[in-house]
Each structure stands twice: as C-alpha cells, then as structure tokens.
Amino acid sequence: MKLAREIVVIFTLLVTINSDGHSLLPVETSKEEDSGTASTQVNVINADQRDTEEFVPTMEWQEIKPGQSIPKGLHVRINFETGLKEAKILVPESDTNEESIGSNAISPPLEEALKRIASSKDAPGLTQDSNPSVNQKQKWRSMKEIKESFTKQNMTISSEMEIVSSLYERLLKETQDNDSMLALDDLEFYVHKYDNAVYFSDLGGVVLLKHLINASSQPDIVAKAALTLGSAMQSNAYVARAAIKAGIMPALLGRLRTAVFNTTLSNRLIFAISSLVRADSEGVNDLAAQGGSKIFRSIIAGDEYGLKSKVKVYTLVDDLLTTESEMTPATRKFLLEDDLVKQMCHQLSRLLPLTPQAAQVDKLISFLEASLSLSLCKEHYEELQPSLSALEVGYGQRMKDPDMGEFYQSIVERIKLCSSQMASKTSTKHEEL
Fold first, then answer.
1. CA distance 233 to 259
2. What is the spatial distance between Cα 73 and Cα 70, in angstroms, rounded to a whole number?
3. Average pLDDT, stretch 119-127?
C-alpha cells in the first residue's frame, strides 16, 4: 500500500479477559507524528465502566464515541486530521473488489456480534429513534386509525353513546334479574358523563328506570336503578327536568316508605331524591307535595332505617337551609311549617353520640350550623349541649393523630362555636323570661 500524508494506524481489536473476569478493551491513549510515522500506546479499561451503547459498524469509516463498546474484528484508525478514532468492517487485502465485499468479507466473530446488535435493536421497548417525542407520536394512534385497524380484523369500536343505546335496548328486553343488574352496572358508569346522561334521557331512559323502580320485585334491581337514575341527574338539570316530567318523585318516595331494614336500598333512593332536588328547584316542590317531610321524619326517628340514611337526610336538609335566600314558598313550608327541622334538631341530640365516623359527625354539625344561622331549634338548645360537650372532649383527645389531627381540630372548633352561640341564645331566652 502507498503511504499517504495522513498516516493511518490500522489494527485489529483483540479482546482479552483480566484477572477479575471482566472484558478488557484496547483504548488509544496517545499519538505522535514523527517523520511521517505514527505510534500508538494501548491501555485497557474495565468493560463495566464503558457506555452500554453498541457501535454499529459499516463498510465506511465511522467515529467511535468515547466509551462506546466495539465488536471484535474491526479495522480501527486514528484520523490525524480530525483527531478522532474511527472504525469500519475489516476487509482482507486480497478481497478489495466490490464482489468479494458483498460475499465473504465479514469475519465469523464480527458477523455474530452484528447479529446480537441487530436483535437488541429489535427488542420490545427499544426504538431506533432516540427522540422521546418522536417515539410518543409513533406510539399513539388516532381513533380513526384504530377503527380502521379493527375493521380490517372484522372488529368494531363503539362510541360511548352507542354503548348507552345498546344498554338501553338490553334493559328493554331483559327478563333475567342477573342480566338486568349487569346492564345497570355498565349504564351507571356511563351516565356520570353529562352528554351520555342527556342522550340516555332522550332515548326514554328515565321512564325505563322509573318502571324498574316501580315494578321490580327485587330490592337489588330497585336499588341499582335508583343509583343509576341519581347518577344521571347529578348536576344535570336537563335529566332532572325530564325526571320531574316523568313523575319520578312519587315512585322514589313510595319505595323509600317501604325500604325499612334495607340500608342499601334506602341510601340509594335518598341519593336519587337528593340529586333531583339539588339539580332543579322544582324537585323540592315535588318533594313537599308528595309528603316528603313525613317520610323524612320517620327516617330520622325510626330504628328501621340505618344511620347512613339518617345522615343523608340531614345533609339534604342542610343543603336546602344554606340556600334559604332562594327558597320557594313550597320549600319554606316543607322545611319550616311542617316541623321537619324542629324534629331533626330534637333527634340530633340522640344521634350525635351514636355517630362513630368523623365524616358523618362533620355533616351533622354542618346541619346544626345552618339551623343556628336561621335561629331555628331554639327549644332544643339545652338538650343539645351535653351531646356537644361530650363530642368536644372526645375529638379533642384525638387532635394529635398524625393523619386526621387537623380534621378533628376543625370539628372541635366548630363544636365550640355552636356551643357558644347556643349558650348566648339560651341566656338571652332566660333574660326575656
């Protein structure tokens, strides 16, 4: 070979094993130009210290990046013009023509190394592109592309409204309770979304659920239908108005009146009533007109209904009291003139000591705060004071809890404020006498 101005040092990589059992790689550490010659000094580094990225050789010279591992059997040189170390696939001197390069130019060890590199590039989770944003774009496909892919495989993807429509049709046709429960389970999930609930209502879904609540002999079916209806009406005035128009309140109250000793059923019926009342003020008028106050009084006073059902009634009435400025005459009559709130204040003194959960106590205290702001329940202030004092002591001892301490402290502070207000009003009442 002729010597060029750029003297290229070509050597074949040899890999040895050190005494610790680690691979050792030749690394160029120095070079010098002296009278057209070049010399190299080879040092070694531990293979565990090098970068894990593999060098992929071709027939052309390529730069070897610092720390990059190199397969066996390559031609390696130092380019004196750039100062970079480069490598390419080794070609025997006797086979320099293009034909031989295309046939048996690659040595067996190098061929095996290249196979390992290729297989690692195709491994799951690895991509040729190192740009994460590009990989994400390739990973995610549009719904149109997904549907086209499924169509080719004789599969389809339905929109949520199509699913709601299918579930509605299933409920119309189902005669088996288990099948109806499954359909209601799925439907309750979808009607949480506003548009799905409106679409279900337009299909006649509210009327269908009313029929199930009225006609089903299975408490589980009635409870699931009430839960689905409540989910559809929650913060959805459109569905609530459709429910009022369909006459849903009499159906809910009728079932609630007989839902004794069935906590799940009564809880879900009260949930549906609360969703209707909160979503549309006309619902309160319906509740009052259909004897809702009488049924609520029986719930909070009777042992036939569970504690959770009682707390739900207190929570609903609390919501109505806090919107006192927006009360319609029917709402005012329902809350004030029918003695509902007075009865609830009386029962509160008995209920507070029986309530073990702080979240439920929080809701009962909220009702008391609303009634105090409206100067209601005056005759029950004295009987409430012992229950509040006991709660204040109990939750005061739990204020150091690392997880719930702050919540317990807020309950104690609110109890103190209510007690202070009641003491002031009681003192004023005694002075007037």
1. 21
2. 9
3. 49
pLDDT digits (tens, 9 = 90+) for 63-78: 888 878 888 778 888 7
Burial label for 27, CB within 10 Å (0-12, 13-18, 19+), is middle
Of 356, 277, 354, 359, the closest CA to residue 321 belongs to 277
Task: Report the C-alpha gap between 254 and 13 in whole angstroms.
Answer: 90
Amino acid identity for residue 369 in this structure: E
Cα gap 5→120, rounded to integer Å? 40
Alpha-carbon distance of 230 to 270, in angstroms, equals: 9
Structure-model confidence comparison of residues 294 and 67, the more confident one: 294
Strand order in the sheet with 16-17: 16-17, 23-34, 37-46
Query: Letter for the amino acid at 60?
Result: E
On whether the CB atoms of residues 380 and 349 are closer than 8 A, the answer is yes
H-state helical runs in 71-204:
98-101, 108-121, 132-139, 143-152, 160-173, 177-190, 194-203
- State phi, psi for 46 to the nearest 5 degrees: -70, 135
The separation between the first and the last C-alpha atoms of the chain, rounded to the nearest angstrom, is 125
Residue 6 has pLDDT above 50, yes or no: no
Radius of gyration from C-alpha coordinates of the chain: 40
State the sign of the Cα–Cα–Cα–Cα dihedral 266, 271, 277, 280.
negative
CA proximity to 8, closest of 65, 86, 71: 86
Q: What is the pTM of this model?
A: 0.63
Which residue is listed with tokens 């301490």?
405
SS3 sequence, 205-272? Answer: HHHHHHHHHHHCCCHHHHHHHHHHHHHHHCCCHHHHHHHHHCCHHHHHHHHHHCCCCCHHHHHHHHHH
Domain definitions of the chain by residue range: 11-121
* Residues 22, 15: Cα–Cα separation, whole Å: 10
Q: C-alpha angle 400/413/377, rounded to 5°?
A: 140
Say if residues 229 and 274 touch (Cβ distance below 8 Å).
no
Q: Which residue has the tokens 């959960």?
A: 357
- CB neighbours (10 Å) of residue 314? 24
